[in-house]
Amino acid sequence: LIAAVLAIFIRTFIFGPYKIPTGSMKPTFMEEDKIFVDKLSYRFHSPKRGDIIVFKYPLDRKKDFVKRLAGLPGEALEIRKGVLVVNGKPMTDPPFSKNTYYNVEDWKFGKSGQVIRIPEGHYFALGDNSAHSADSRQWGFVPKKDLVGKAFMIWWPPKRIRLPK
Q1: CA separation, residue 134 to residues 31, 57, 74, 75, 147 (Å)
Q2: What is the pTM of this model?
Q3: Which of 26, 67, 130, 136 is catalytic?
Q4: Residue 24 annotated among the catalytic residues of the structure
């Protein structure tokens, strides 16, 4: 009984396993990868740009989504010629330099030439596989209260065990 209570407590509040269902985060995560998520650290510090975050999906709060944190509260973000631009500065360092980001003209955010202002208390998340990712470009901002945690390790399959970057 004690072990069961402890296991439930750890999975709920400290860290938990998740399965990647789609290719929206390729090449960082592949379909069927299983990851561990740190659910504790964001209680003590704010997320950083580039973190791989897990959050409640804004259109269906019963689902959790995994994306890369691209924009922080108060920032101005734009996708210009495949490059993420934050506060007028192109993000030329990894992890952003290894991805091409696409404008999507019929989604709410991320249209060509559109500068996105991220409200206080919210974040902007993008899939690493931008061409095949439903992300903040489509449904908007992630409220801070909806952050579940930070992905920190691929644990399955064995040949892919590593810390994602």
Answers
A1: 15, 11, 22, 21, 17
A2: 0.91
A3: 67
A4: yes
